[in-house]
Amino acid sequence: MTHFVRRTIQVVAALAVLAGVAHAQTPLSILTPNGGEVWPVGARRDIVWSGATRGNVRIELSRDSGLTFESIFSNVRNDEVQVWEVDGPPSAHCRLRLTLLDDPTITAESAADFTIADTIVGMTVTNPNGGETWEGGSERLITWSAPGDGNVRIELSRDGGVSWETLFAETPNDGMEPWTVRGPALACRIRVTHLDVPGLSDVSDGDFSITSGVVVTAPNGGETWEGLSQQLITWVARGDGDVKIELSRDGGLTYETLFASTPNDGSEPWTVTGPPATCRIRISHVDDPALEDESDGDFFISSGVTVTAPAGGEVWVIGSQQQITWTAAGVGDVSIALSRNGEPFQTIIDRTPNDGAEFWTVAGPVSTARILITRPDDPTLSSESRDDFFITQTPGVTVIEPNGTEVWTVGSRQFIRWAGVQGGRVSIDLSRDAGLTWETLFASTSNDGIQAWVVTGPESQDVMIRVTRLTPPFASDTSDATLEITTQPLTVIAPQGGDDWVVGTQQLIRWGGTGVGAVGIDLSRDSGDHWETIIPRTPNDGAQFWTVTGPPTFGALIRVVGLDDLPGIDFSDPFTISSGTLDLSQPNGGERWAIGTAQGITWSTTTGGTVSIELSRDGGDTWETLFANTPNDGSQPWTVSGPACSS
Questions:
Q1: Relative to the CA of 411, which of 127, 297, 427, 577 has its CA 20 to 30 Å away?
Q2: Residues β-bridged to residue 104
Q3: Are 536 and 519 a contacting pair, CB within 8 Å?
């Protein structure tokens, strides 16, 4: 009996414990508003909570962050939501508290402050609000609408809202704020936040862009500015303040400062400096270097100096007075230097006004020479003679080139040069036997110190040139030593040994040793015993087409022979001239072709030219012509004609 009673008591106790668990309440928890919300006066909002679901609750409001509370609902059903028409006064430090009326120990409170705002609700950024383009340095108006007084903070994002920088930490909430635009960036947004109600904030609906607001207008690409010339750098830029002007001489890779700070008035005169280069100009705001622009394309700085005399080829006699002339931009002075025989330049006139001309008494020794003009104020700006001129000893004639040991090839273009007092006429003669006999190359040509000549044969190792003045003062000079005139030997390149050229095909005969003159081309079909001329005469240009003729042979040779003054002869290696092949592929036996049908006669061939097509109706005893002359292209359509046959 005792055991039964103890057991019953244990069961009852267990049931009591389970009942207690079933009636236990979970804690209340406010879900909305729970901190950060902005609820306007007069708006209907849902108060939402979770937790105990039995009985009723009391809902209270604090406007001082929980120090004091006022009841807004004294007894409402505990169904986790209650609609409330928000009433004032406004406060940025509001909290709600819920209490379970059946058990006042169960309460919940907002985790942080929310805001009750004036009846005009919300913050709205109205400008810029997306799509605008604002130029750096320009004055723009940021505008917004927001309830109440107090102050706002204005921020700028240049990356579409990822990060923010403060433009105005605190400014009156009057709906507008002027701003001198700084930049540039492509994905900008403005954010305005009420300082008294931090939850009252708005961001531009879309991105706007900020351009540099600076445009270089000159130089902007393609110009050529001469060293030491006066040029005007121009630009357009928003705002006041100063700008910085820089120059790149490497197409924009690096920059040097021309003007560290100059008024933003749109133009700046500049005396162009060297060295010559491919250049660009960059202009930026001193107060905001990010606002900048550079020339759209490269412009060019040239030396601005050009030697016009002596430019090359002149002959100046020692002791004579000659005029050195040049062009150069700007004022100031120039210095003049002389190089002899390719050696370094030596100054002959240290400094003289940049007036374009300077007389000089020619000094020895005899040499080739060049003149260099340099701007002393900027030694990177200079120019020299385009080619050598000649300083000579006597006013007669001196053959300078050729003057011995040269080797000139027949057909090449060479220059005969001489020195002496210019003017009048000269004759130019050639000897191929070291001066024993002479032939005239030019009976009378201008005495300007140079004459072009396309070298002619025959070959010789004892060639000399003689130049003779035809007008006073009469004089003559001959090369100091002999030169050589040679030819490139004729060499047959094609056909090569072993080639097979088919009768009727067009082939290219090629040879080396080209130049002046003409050649003839011969063919042997019996390994050189007998020859026939296939091309009597053709220019010596190294190539000639030939349509191969029969009869076929295994012992063909080509011979190229120089004509006129062109010496030389060469033979190809043996090659083959064959008749080629012609194989009928259709019809080729067994086909049945109906009279009146369209059929194709086809064949393969290794030759060109034309073919005739014939038909036999009696096994080959007799033939009739279908096509007397048709291109040898491997096919010929035929509408089958009668009479019928089977062989």
A1: 427
A2: none
A3: no
Indicate if 35 and 90 belong to the same structural domain. yes
Rounded alpha-carbon distances, angstroms, from residue 351 to 305, 344, 369, 399: 15, 19, 20, 35
Q: What phi and psi, each to the nearest 5 degrees, are found at residue 44?
A: -95, 125
Instruction: Print the domain residue range for 100.
Output: 29-117
Cβ 342 vs Cβ 419: under 8 Å: no
Q: Which CATH number goes with the domain that contains 245?
A: 2.60.40.10
Place of tokens 């019928």: 644
CA gap 631, 612 in Å, rounded: 9
- With b meaning 16 or more CB within 10 Å and e meaning fewer, what string describes 281-315? bbbbbebbeebbbbbeebbebbbbbbbbebbbbbb
Is residue 563 within 8 A of residue 518, CB to CB? The reply is yes
Planar angle of CA 312, 313, 316, nearest 5 degrees? 100
State the Cα–Cα distance between residues 476 and 478, nearest whole angstrom.
7
CA 32: distance to chain centroid? 61
**In this structure, what token pair is assigned to residue 300?**
């060019």
Q: What is the pLDDT of residues 227-284, one digit of tens each?
A: 999 999 999 987 778 999 999 999 899 999 999 999 999 999 999 999 999 999 999 9
CB 408 within 8 A of CB 479: no
Chain length of the chain: 647
Asked if residue 237 belongs to a domain, the reply is: yes
- Tens-place pLDDT, residues 315-368: 788 888 899 999 998 888 999 999 999 999 999 999 999 999 999 999 988 888
3-state secondary structure 317-339: ECCCEEEEEEEECCCCEEEEEEE
Is the pTM of the predicted complex or chain greater than 0.85? no
Burial letters for 417-439: b for 16+ Cβ neighbours within 10 Å, e otherwise?
Answer: bbbbbbeeebbbbbbbeeeeeee
- One-letter amino acid identity for 357? A
| Gap between the Cα atoms of 401 and 416, Å rounded | 5
Token readout for 261 is 């700070």
Residue type, 417: R
Among 53, 87, 117, the domain boundary falls at 117
Which residues partner with 326 through β-bridges? 307
Instruction: State whether 403 and 481 are in the same domain.
Output: yes
